[in-house]
Design brief:
The complex is a heterodimer of chains A (303) and B (265). Chain A is mostly helical and 303 residues long. Chain A contains twelve helices and two strands. The relative contact order of chain A is 0.19. Chain B has a domain of 141 residues: P-loop containing nucleotide triphosphate hydrolases (Rossmann fold, 3-Layer(aba) Sandwich), CATH 3.40.50. Classes of the chains: A mainly alpha (303), B alpha/beta (265). Chains A and B meet through α5, α6 and α7 of A and α2, α3, α4 and α6 of B.
Chain lengths: 303, 265
């Protein structure tokens, strides 16, 4: 029993990490209807910037805080540059053109980040405690072992989701974002400045990428493969639905738990490796049965 | 339905177009078009398909920038104006192919029309606290008034995508009115409606003009509607202005008759 709980909890924690990356995708998709292929590259770029700045600033009184503030500034600048150079010339173009543009952004960011900051593996230590803690000792013999860094990650993700939910549902800017996603022209006609809105969305997506970069980076080290976590976000999105913040979280958790449990209990029967393909097969099944995902909006076209 | 009551006061020139030309590649969509709109007036733009009516509307609210000519609005002349700037200056519009936010409810759609009227700080909105709260409530009251006015109470919580076409057109008008515009541009507000829906829409347009004092420029194909509603009519054909005047004058204009019925060769 204790072991099973440990597996499930481990899965939940992995799922939280997937959700963090998926959130960035959902944000941009909600606000512009564009699948932002560059989200993974943004995670890598943000983490690289942070880790290298911390190294440069290590003589100061708080390298992490100063580097964090500087990285936030860099992500805002990045959003502004992307809006100016890429999105503005593509207003009112079909979604596929914008998608291709984000593909380009992803390569430019990957290359630029490594050209500026170097391409080694960097250890990122932001002071998240790493000692595992034991929970439920009274209920389960031996207790359940939980890595405390995973708990911290879960906490951060929870706060982020809460904040984003309030931002989207309660504020005028949130409503403006949803309006822009639905119809560019109509949004402009009621006085919503498209360009400002895009800078805001990409900034928020950049900050989410930064959080994901910090959490993932301190777990795996900051390296090129960090950009590839984006690939794991894809099945999460298909499961949860592209427009739903809640969906990104639930989808991430389901995939995290699913792949850990099936790896541990079914793995030995088929020779292991389930963890690597579980998410994609699940996504495939979802595409066949419920293509809009668990929380996505069903699109009905009038004929 | 009759023409507007005689006591209505038509004011000064609110909008003036001066020698507007617009070309897409080699195609001239508009060629040296000039006319003016007086405040509190209902001004119709008519013309055969492809005459440049929608292009003209798009020039007024800044979607297109004319290659020649200038737009003067409230005494200030603009060479280039962007759509959200036009909205800020009090120009609202509806579209020929309805442009609503399909995933949102009717209420939310109309609330977006209030975008420019909201001033509470960002942080307060997040917290839904203090000024933001009272402001949101004030906006809701205004929006409810418009919902009442257009008789769409029964669908306020329905996602717009599920509504019938005629109702969507009405919601779009509601969103435009929510901005309390001085100038309202309507691109074929009655296209695809049945007789009853058209009569309703006519009444709403006249009432908006009357009650809110909104100046209205509208494009419409239904001649009966145009003749009944408008104070003055502009006629376009192949991007050129071929007629301008009261409905009766336009009806008797030979160039207009030729454009609509064809010329004997």
């Amino acid at each position: 029993m204790g072991f099973f709980l440990e597996v499930v909890l481990g899965g939940l924690m992995a799922g939280v990490l997937y959700s963090l990356v998926a959130l960035g995708f959902v944000l941009i998709f909600k606000a512009s209807g564009v699948f932002n292929f560059a989200q993974g590259a943004m995670v890598l770029f943000a983490a690289l910037t942070l880790v290298r700045l911390m190294e440069i600033l290590k003589e100061t009184f708080s390298p992490f805080l100063i580097a964090l503030l500087l990285t936030i500034a860099v992500m805002i600048a990045l959003a502004w540059v992307i809006e100016r150079l890429v999105l503005r010339p593509l207003v009112n173009q079909p979604g596929i053109s914008l998608f291709m543009a984000t593909l380009g952004i992803s390569y430019v960011l990957d290359g630029f980040g490594q050209a500026v900051w170097g391409s080694d593996v960097y250890a990122l230590d932001v002071g998240i405690p790493k000692r595992p803690i034991v929970l439920f000792e009274s209920m389960v013999p031996g207790g359940v072992l939980v890595p405390s860094e995973d708990l911290a990650a879960a906490l951060i993700a929870g706060l982020l989701v809460l904040g984003l939910g309030v931002f989207f549902q309660r504020t005028r800017i949130g409503r403006a974002l949803r309006a822009v996603a639905d119809d560019h022209q109509a949004a402009q006609s009621v006085g919503i400045p498209l360009n400002t809105i895009w800078v805001i969305v990409w900034t928020v997506a950049g900050l989410v990428a930064l959080v994901a970069g910090i959490v993932w980076g301190s777990k795996l080290g900051v390296q090129f493969s960090l950009g590839l976590v984006a690939l794991k976000a894809l099945p999460v999105l298909i499961l949860g639905g592209f427009e739903s913040i809640v969906g990104a979280v639930v989808g991430g958790l389901i995939i995290g738990v699913g792949e850990k449990v099936s790896e541990v209990y079914l793995g030995p029967a088929v020779g292991g490796g389930i963890e690597n393909w579980f998410a994609y097969v699940l996504a495939l099944l979802f595409l066949l049965v419920r293509p809009e995902g668990l929380f996505g909006e069903r699109h009905i076209d009038r004929v | 339905m009759s023409t507007a009551p005689p006591q209505r006061h038509i004011g000064d020139v609110l909008l003036k177009l001066d020698g507007i030309s617009l070309a897409f590649g080699g195609v001239k969509a508009l060629d040296d078009v000039s006319f003016e709109v007086r405040s509190h007036e209902i001004r119709a733009i008519i013309g055969p398909n492809g005459a440049g009516k929608s292009s003209l509307l798009n020039v007024i609210n800044g979607v297109y920038h004319p290659s020649q000519g200038a737009v003067t609005y409230k005494g200030t002349t603009y060479r280039q104006m962007r759509p959200h700037e036009a909205a800020r200056r009090g120009i609202a519009r509806t579209f020929q192919n309805i442009a609503l936010f399909k995933g949102m409810t009717v209420l939310d759609n109309i609330m977006t029309g209030r975008t420019l009227k909201m001033h509470a700080g960002f942080l307060f909105q997040c917290l839904y606290f203090g000024k933001a709260r009272s402001e949101e409530l004030a906006h809701r009251r205004k929006v409810e008034h418009i919902i009442d006015f257009l008789q769409i109470e029964h669908i306020r919580k329905t996602p717009v995508g599920r509504l019938a076409y005629g109702l969507q057109k009405r919601v779009e008008l509601a969103r435009a009115l929510a901005a309390e515009p001085e100038l309202l541009l309507l691109d074929e507000p009655m296209a695809g409606m049945n007789l009853e829906e058209k009569e309703d829409m006519c009444r709403f347009i006249l009432d908006a003009n009357d009650e809110f004092g909104t100046t209205i420029v509208l494009i419409e194909h239904d001649m009966g509607v145009v003749m009944d509603l408008s104070d003055r009519v502009v006629v376009l054909d192949y991007g050129r202005k071929i007629g301008d005047g009261s409905p009766d004058e336009v009806r008797r204009n030979q160039a207009v008759i030729d454009a609509y019925l064809g010329v004997r060769h």
